[in-house]
Specification:
Shape: globular
CATH topology: TIM Barrel
CATH architecture: Alpha-Beta Barrel
Number of helices: 9
CATH class: Alpha Beta
Number of strands: 8
Strand content: 5-15%
Order of helices and strands: EHEHHEHEHEHEHEHEH
CATH superfamily: Glycosidases
Distance between the termini: 48 Å
Largest sheet: 8 strands, parallel
Structural class: alpha/beta
Mean pLDDT: 93
Low-confidence stretches: 1-19
Helix content: 25-40%
Radius of gyration: 19 Å
Strand order of the largest sheet: 2-1-8-7-6-5-4-3
Length: 312
């Protein structure tokens, strides 16, 4: 069982006007003191991954307790909750590998259905995570490539639409903003889903952008804009040990995202020193002091709650 330490402080985020944009973060093994001082959207870091919940083929024994805590925290605070994620290659139940294809399909259906039943106030769902780079090992059981090349993705979104009728269904992948070939392939999948009215938004991970030229990020973002769908910058972080370098990257990249009218929110991937997946992506030091990038980000978002509608 898991217990969450909830040490919440009051925040301007809790009293923001109804902006169409949010600035979110993940919740890991506990809710850090002052989470709401900085963030107004919640994504569970690991608690929503099937391998974390699905401990055996017996669905009645699955461990939902940690995910329950994160979900209820977000709902009680009035923060949008994003379910992350339904299908992925990583962090999946290893017992699935021992099942035949029909039983694999049955278990995936059960997983999606139960998530929808347990978390009806979910705002957004990462239905398929990293389809280009890391499709699930059981993809053939749920349609495989099929005639479209992405039948398994379409199947997943169909099931998610049934399970989460009130949530926005998102796709999510990395190296989209930094690689135009990936962007074009991503758009092919998105257009297939759009044609069936199965997708409500596009997730673009923000890992590994430290050395990417702003012009390339902007051009790929413009391509995604042309789909007409809302865009969500997910898993954003800047892995720089030097404060000034981290700050400079934030100052170059955040306005590109924030000022695009189709970007509805940015979710960072951790912020407390010692609690981030990469060593220098933290924004709050272990002693509680803020790095300059966070101080700048607070003021920037406060001064530009809706963005300017242009990237520079």
């Amino acid at each position: 069982m898991y217990a969450l330490l909830i040490l919440e402080s009051q925040s301007y985020c809790q009293n923001k006007n109804d902006s169409s944009k949010f600035l979110g973060n993940i919740i890991g093994s506990y809710i850090p003191s002052g989470f709401g001082k900085y963030w107004d959207q919640v994504t569970p870091e690991n608690a929503g991954k099937w391998g974390f919940v699905g401990t055996s083929t017996d669905t009645s024994s699955w461990n939902w307790s940690y995910l329950d805590s994160v979900y209820h925290y977000a709902v009680n605070k009035g923060y949008p909750f994003k379910f992350h994620n339904l299908l992925w290659r990583q962090q999946q139940p290893m017992w699935m590998r021992k099942l035949d294809a029909p039983l694999q399909k049955k278990m995936v259906e059960a997983w999606i259905r139960l998530c929808g039943e347990k978390y009806p106030k979910t705002s957004m769902v990462d239905v398929v995570n990293e389809p280009i780079h890391k499709p699930p090992f059981y993809k053939d059981a749920i349609g495989g490539d099929g005639n479209s090349g992405w039948d398994w993705v379409i199947w997943a979104f169909e099931k998610a639409r049934q399970a989460f009728p009130d949530a926005k269904l998102l796709i999510n992948d990395y190296s989209i903003l930094s690689d135009s070939a990936n962007t074009h392939e991503y758009i092919q999948i998105i257009e297939l889903l759009k044609a069936k009215d199965l997708i409500d938004g596009i997730g673009c991970q923000g890992h590994g952008l430290e050395k990417v030229e702003p012009n390339l990020i902007e051009s790929n973002l413009r391509l995604l804009d042309e789909t007409g769908l809302p865009i969500y910058i997910s898993e954003y972080d800047v892995d720089e040990s030097t404060d000034i370098k981290q700050l400079e990257i934030f100052q170059r990249q955040i306005p590109i995202f924030w000022n695009d009218p189709q970007v509805r929110g940015i979710t960072l991937w951790g912020y407390v020193q010692g609690q981030t997946w990469r060593p220098y992506t933290y924004l709050v030091r272990a002693d509680g002091t803020e790095r300059p990038a966070l101080k700048w980000l607070e003021e920037y978002v406060r001064s530009n709650p809706e963005g300017s509608g242009k990237s520079n």
